[in-house]
Prior knowledge:
The protein is α+β, with helices and mostly antiparallel strands. The chain has helices spanning 2-31, 50-56, 60-63, 77-88, 133-155, 176-181, 202-206, 260-286, 303-309, 313-316, 331-342, 388-434, 438-464, 477-494, 514-530, 562-565, 583-593, and strands at 35-39, 45-48, 93-100, 106-118, 121-131, 159-164, 169-173, 219-226, 232-242, 251-258, 288-293, 298-301, 347-354, 360-371, 377-386, 473-475, 497-502, 510-512, 536-544, 548-555, 597-603, 607-615.
Amino acid sequence: MVKQSENILIEKHQLHELHREYETYLSLFTHYPGMMFSLNLNGYITNMNGYGEQFAQQNGESVLNKHYTEFIIHADRKKVEEAFRNTLAGKISKLQTTLIHVTRNRVDVEIITIPIYINNKVDGAFSIVRDITLERKTAVALKESQEKYRLIAEHTSELISLVNVENDTVIYASPSHETILGYSPHYYLGRSITLDVYPGDKRSISNLLKNDPQDPSPAVVEFRRKHANGSWLCLEDRATLIPSGLDNERTLVVVTRDITEKKEAERELKQTLKQLKDMKYALDESALVSIADKRGKITSVNDKFCETSGYMKKELIGEEHMILDSGYHPESFFTEMRSKISKGEVWKGEINNKKKNGEVFWVDTTIVPFLDDEGEPYQYVYIRKDITNRKQTEEFLRTSDKLSVIGELAAGVAHEIRNPLTSLKGFTQILKSRLSDESDQEFIKIMMSELDRINMIVNEFMVLARPQAVTYEKANILDLIENVLTLIETQAILNNVQIFTRLIKTVPAITCSENQIKQVLINVLKNAIEAMPDGGEIVVSVYVDSTDIMIEVKDNGTGIPDHQLSHLGEPFYTTKKKGNGLGLMICRRIIQNHKGEMTFASEEGLGTTVAIKLPLDLQQ
């Protein structure tokens, strides 16, 4: 009785364990988050879980007792059947195929088939199905992306490298390495990123390996690298750090661009800009430069333009160049100029301009039109050179030509006049000795005076004649001035003129023609006396510097108007009623022959100052 009770208890215990195992299986089959179904030994579906019904969009009863291959695309059925046979042989099979959905859509899946053992014997199979449609699309997209990047890396003109940051080795080098650097990509694999880098640039390349992983922006560095032929190329690296991979190893993606031509272009551009800057500097230093827009309005002027014209930049900007018009040229002159430059042609000529203070000046002008794509001028560049001194020299040469003619004329006239003049003077002196009547004597006195005047004019003509034999000797200018003052003193006293001197005690001797310098000083002092008909004062001063001696004669007479002052010294130009216009001309010629200068300064009502500058050492 006891033994039978024990057997019953054992059976209940086993039944309870079997029930637990069944519940466990049922829970796994029912709640597994994927499609699961069971097959018998012939491959017919015997059961399918709830997720499978959702996936197939049909209940389990509609698929029961159907062969599983009905849901597999025809192309994969042999492969699936072989996997099922392997499962029945006790092996777990795993494959990827495509299911035909009830909607006739196709779904990519992974099927794992596990054998079912009953009493240690295969009695069927479980199939677990996982939807891998998205994975396959992702894999295809990844493969396509990889293929694109491979094509880019293999066909780009830039160098692409992958560098292991931890050990500084190149793990990939694009084929363009051979095109740009001359070495096969395999030459760089497993070697340092600084291989063949110019020694002075290696530090900057090494800094790429220290790229901050928190900084997503690529590091950029320029460096030089040796080509296989030994030449140096200028390159630019842009390195981006890829997040850590296996074993926390970091990888740099380095894109290298050949910037040799760019650097050469930059160097040439820099050199060109420097040349343009130097040319502009040279132009600004030597010429008056201004720019006008297509309407003729001034948009820019250089400092020399302002310095010469007397205008400030703000006074010129927005104005036309006619602001400098002196009135010398007729309107037709400017009409022709505008017509030519408006056609895009360069105009060249000489223009008489007027400064802000009213002073005139000459400029040699070139106007260059700048043309747009349609060939129309959009601005004009005016380049002017001040030629006032040249114009004055040309005027001086013209005057010199006149003097040359006058000299030749004077020599002939003086020669022809002097002979009859000597006879007239001799016969007049005979008449003076024979006639005793006082009235006759008065007439003879007048005749002698006029004959002396004619003789003086003839003598002045002779000074103009060329060639002249002039002897230059060392002379003390103070002694020379003292002699002249002695000669002129009587005339000064008769005209109520006082002469004062401001002379230094010692003056170096100068090389000169003493008689000619005396002639100049006498002429200047006589003019000063005659400029003060009511009397006055004359101050004679002497100054000396390292190279020249200056003699200044200043009176407080009536002065000379500005319009007459610039003509002093011209042939036959005089401010006197009885003057012949030869005195100052001869004086100026004498001073010029001594390589000196003679200038005049005057103000009406205040007097005139004549300055004579002579070199201490006259190089003949």
